[in-house]
Specification:
Strand order of the largest sheet: 1-3-2
Distance between the termini: 12 Å
Radius of gyration: 17 Å
Number of helices: 4
Low-confidence stretches: none
Helix content: 25-40%
Structural class: alpha+beta
Strand content: 15-25%
Number of domains: 1
Oligomer: single chain
Amino acid sequence: RLLKSGGLLMVRTPNKFNPIMFLSAILPLNVRTWIKKNLFYDTEGDTFPTYYRCNSMGRMNKTLKRCGFQRTSTAYDGLMTYFNFSKILVTTITIYERITDLRPLNIFKMWLIASFRKV
């Protein structure tokens, strides 16, 4: 309804197969709020319930195909900058990012990026 035929939809969403997103999905909200407040020194209170319903390439393909879209490209991106406050975590995450740069392991990166064309 929003795109004409041939229109392009770009999607960037957290990847549910990333270990951090996986933990976010299974930990209760109060635990995630505590972690964010104590590790990230966040007092804003912007931790919300998490529902990963379309955060894998398979689910996204299936859902958007039903809506008349065809996937045109896929990418995974790390950009795990949440840990810049800790040199040890930055080093660990940098190693993790290098490992997940390998083709079979890139499905574990933080972000899922895809483009779909309306048919």
